[in-house]
Amino acid sequence: xxxxxxxxKAADLTHEVIGEPGIFEQFSRMSGNLTxxxxxxxxxxxxxxxxxxxxxxxxxxxxKDAGIHGLLQARELTVQGLDWDIVAPEGxxxxxxKAAAECKEALLESQNFPELIAHQNGEGNxxxxxxxxxxxxxxxxxxxxxxxxxNIHCGRFGFRAVDSKLVFTDTQSGSTDDGIDLDEAxxxxxxxxxxxxxxxxxxxxxxxxRLLVWYGLARNWSLKDMLQLAELCYxxxxxxTYKKTADxxxxxxxxxxxxxxxxxxxxxxxxxxxxxxLASSISSSGKPVHIEMMEFLGREAGKATLGTAxxxxxxxxxxxxxxxxxxxxxxxxxxxxxxxxxxxxxxxxVRPFVTFNYGESVETPEFVLLTEDRQNIKExxxxxxxxxxxxMQIPASYVRDQTGIPEPKPDEELLKGTDTITTGSGxxxxxxxxxxxxxxxxxxxx
Length: 446
Description:
three-stranded antiparallel β-sheet; 13 strands; 4 domains; two-stranded antiparallel sheet; 14% strand; 14 helices
């Protein structure tokens, strides 16, 4: 396929400049008769800087294999589902604080910011890079806000031979020397990209794809072989015998009966012949060898993707132990992914937002994906009761921070319990029903 002409530099950030790939790229698929030799040639092509076929192959494997898809989806959703915030650093100017609040409002109003996070995290970890285009909009007050994010297919990139630079090529074959460095061509604020460290190799060989593609294909080949084996072997074998003195017509009838038993399950034969049904046996472990192979490959893929083999299905220790284990093991991976994305979003989205709307002199707020797990309020409240009974003095501000319960506003209705609330003026029994914060303050003063 010939290289498509590169998009011209856009002076207006509010226009989409990359556009959709051609019809051929959208509807093409890898051949169903893949061999190890063909896969090796695809990997060799990717190692030479042209990963388009590897990207297509990996996506096709994900569409065929529920286990591989579940692992990759878990890696994506673990980060996509995190809360996030934009905060001014300590000691920042009032303009920085204002910029942080406005940028947060703009991202909350944008069309598909969560999908941007999923693409950057998922495709970035899978292929070692991911690009998305930012389409800005002019607000009624002439501010520049990010309106939507266009995720770009990883197969439209390659690595330039002269300097190994990741460039936009939009071609599956041929030279990448004419590729475009999107960041250099369009400047800050038009594209957001990520290049995480996955296996510590050069960027051309980064990502999980090279590892998962073999596990996915081996699982697919095992499934294909198992289906063929089921068709051939898991039906009872029919063995017919006839006497030497049998009439040739009886032999022909015997052959026809054997075929009928395989299709309709019944048949009649002359008494000069015999039929024996031989059932296929299962492996010594009680499972077909192909099932054992697919389970092994799935566990290995789980180790590579989420750091544990016990992910999609519980292991020998049961579902509860599996859940607790994978939550612990996924925490480090989740925090690492979140940190990488937070830094890139701050540098390639928040910084341009501040520059466009507040000027270059204003410092950059921090973008933070919040990886702290939510407090279990039931367990936390029980521990607070026990600690109070033990005589520990606990600041109310600490309890509010841990539970996320805000400070009550004046004249706001309050829910009262049956416990005794300790204040600076002593203890007062509760349980008289809802009251207002003003009434509570007045009662404390009396």
